[in-house]
Amino acid sequence: MNEPEPDSDPRDEAAAGQAKPRRPRREARRPIVTLEQLPLFADERSLSEAVLGHGKYTHWRAVVPLLEGRGFPKIDGLMGGRYTRAVRAFFDREYRIHGDEQVSKPHSPAKLGAAHQPANLGATWKKRERKP
Description:
- This protein is mostly helical.
- Helix content is 28%, strand content 3%.
- It contains four helices and two strands.
- The N and C termini lie far apart (126 Å).
């Protein structure tokens, strides 16, 4: 007698003539690209992926002309790309990472429950004396 092998599945024998249904492929995750991983002069598509993430190239193309008006580095014609360190420095300046206005010391703690005092606006205020 023909006995099925212990490791075989009887459903496989019935569907031997038919193709097995395929599972939809999962899109492989792309590794995250950072500005530090790019060459010194990077093309637009690579910069868009490093700054905005994968699939944002169309948005990047719309935003770059606005950024160039604010000092964003232009494409170097000789090198064929934007200088990535200048791109990084632009965003650091834009978000004041290394600027003069960076908070250098923590704020003083709030005095909860203290009486409200008028702000000192540089003028000396004198109380008027009321005449009886």
